[in-house]
């Protein structure tokens, strides 16, 4: 059978139309794969590991003073709720709420007219008894009276003097005095008000200096002693530290919590600290050391030990090629912590570049892209941030 030339060319054309798109598609796929491989090779470091973006910082040493932390409550050196020993009607109130008073200052006067009259009556009675005794003693010299009369006169005089002293004491109780210097609280007592025995008049607090009572675990007893310096902070005065020292340790450990109560005396010349305030305390212990410190967020904690990642020059950079950084993991020995910081005793040297953020995605040899725009908190005395 003979195929006509025109029919042969038509079949070839149809085959090209069918096969051509397939060949073109295969070519596009192969080209895209080659392009992707080239891009991956361009952006991947040694060993085919993709780079990771991290933040870093230079390790440097700081003066480190070890401290024990605790919380406690401020207490006045002397504090009382003033009241009256006897009932009476308030005649005068000689103070304003919240003011400072000196010792012996007259605060409240109760009505004492009856007591004053009785004191005057008894004073006259004492004078009469004294006159009678003096006259009878003169009569005794001429045997005009007996010794028994003199004894009765002396007993009567002593009785009258005792009654006078008792009434004078009652009269003094009608005047309420400040027993010591301090700051008064808020009172609701007013002239004309009747006070019963024991009714509260006002609070008086001596708050310069002021005590801080706090607790520490029993295992710290060997590290604390009287005279040890402390610093106190409170959220009532953000950013301010109040110095003081330990003045007493309790004579026993709480058998339930196994904590020991510690008393510190804090200077408070401007009365900024008030009794009942909550406060934080740091007890400075040991000597000042010069230690390398890092943010605690820079340390990776594992069951087999703590480690950090360092940003080091790659082998190609050491050979003179374009500078690049890779991750190197090193184990560290950690010391005490304070705030956001931790002391590093072994494992890194001052001046090493330490990865502080993004280290969770690293492994040794990972190429690094450094972006230090965001750094973890590194404050030795962090404070709560208000929302």
What's the quick description here?
The chain has four helices and 22 strands.
Ranges where pLDDT stays below 50 over 5 or more residues in a row are none
Q: What is the terminal-to-terminal distance?
A: 94 Å
Largest sheet entry: 6 strands, mixed
Q: Largest sheet, order of strands side by side?
A: 16-17-18-22-1-21
Tell me what the structure shows.
- There is one protein chain.
- By secondary structure, the chain is α+β, with helices and mostly antiparallel strands.
- It folds into three domains: about 50-65 and about 290-370, conserved putative lor/sdh protein from methanococcus maripaludis s2 fold (Beta Barrel), CATH 2.40.420; about 70-75 and about 210-285, Efflux pump adaptor protein, beta barrel domain (Elongation Factor Tu (Ef-tu), domain 3); about 80-195, no CATH class.
- Helices cover about 25% and strands about 40% of the residues.
- It has helices spanning about 5-45, 115-140, 145-170, 315-320; strands at about 50-60, 60-65, 65-85, 90-95, 100, 105-110, 175, 180-185, 195, 200-215, 230-235, 240-255, 260-265, 280-285, 290-295, 300, 305-315, 325-330, 335-340, 340-345, 355, 365-370.
- The chain has a six-stranded mixed β-sheet with strand order 16-17-18-22-1-21. The protein has a six-stranded antiparallel beta barrel with strand order 3-10-13-12-11-14.
- Strand 12 (about 240-255) and strand 13 form a beta hairpin.
- Helix 2 runs antiparallel to helix 3 (about 145-170).
- The longest helix has about 40 residues, at about 5-45.
- The chain starts with a helix and ends in a 17-residue tail after the last strand.
């Amino acid at each position: 059978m003979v195929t006509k030339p025109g029919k042969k060319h038509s079949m070839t054309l149809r085959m090209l139309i069918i096969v051509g798109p397939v060949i073109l598609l295969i070519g596009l796929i192969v080209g895209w794969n080659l392009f992707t491989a080239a891009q991956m090779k361009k952006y991947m470091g040694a060993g085919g590991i993709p780079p990771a973006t991290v933040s870093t910082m230079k390790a440097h040493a700081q003066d480190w003073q070890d401290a024990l932390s605790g919380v406690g409550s401020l207490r006045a050196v002397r504090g009382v709720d003033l009241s009256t020993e006897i009932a009476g009607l308030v005649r005068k109130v000689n103070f304003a709420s919240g003011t400072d008073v000196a010792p012996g200052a007259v605060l409240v006067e109760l009505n004492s007219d009856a007591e004053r009259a009785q004191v005057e009556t008894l004073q006259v009675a004492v004078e009469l008894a004294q006159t009678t005794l003096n006259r009878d003693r003169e009569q005794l010299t001429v045997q005009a009276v007996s010794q028994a009369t003199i004894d009765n006169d002396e007993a009567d005089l002593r009785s009258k003097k005792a009654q006078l002293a008792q009434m004078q004491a009652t009269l003094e109780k009608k005047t309420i005095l400040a027993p010591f210097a301090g700051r008064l609280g808020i009172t609701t007592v007013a002239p004309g008000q009747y006070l019963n025995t024991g009714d509260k008049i006002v609070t008086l607090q001596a708050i310069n200096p002021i005590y801080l009572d706090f607790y520490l675990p029993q295992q710290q007893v060997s590290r604390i002693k009287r005279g040890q310096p402390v610093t106190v902070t409170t959220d009532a005065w953000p950013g301010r530290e109040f110095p003081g020292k330990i003045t007493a340790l309790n004579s026993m450990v709480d058998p339930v919590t196994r904590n020991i109560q510690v008393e510190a005396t804090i200077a408070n010349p401007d009365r900024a600290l008030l009794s009942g305030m909550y406060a934080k305390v740091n007890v400075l212990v040991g000597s000042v050391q010069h230690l390398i410190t890092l943010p605690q967020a820079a340390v990776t904690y594992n069951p087999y030990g703590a480690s950090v990642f360092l940003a080091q020059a790659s082998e190609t950079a050491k050979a003179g090629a374009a500078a690049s950084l890779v991750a190197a993991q090193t184990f560290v020995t950690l010391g005490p912590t304070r705030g956001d910081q931790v002391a590093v005793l072994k494992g890194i040297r001052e001046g090493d570049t330490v990865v502080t953020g993004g280290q969770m995605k690293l492994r040794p040899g990972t190429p690094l892209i450094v972006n230090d725009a965001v750094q973890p908190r590194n404050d030795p005395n962090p404070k709560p941030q208000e929302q």
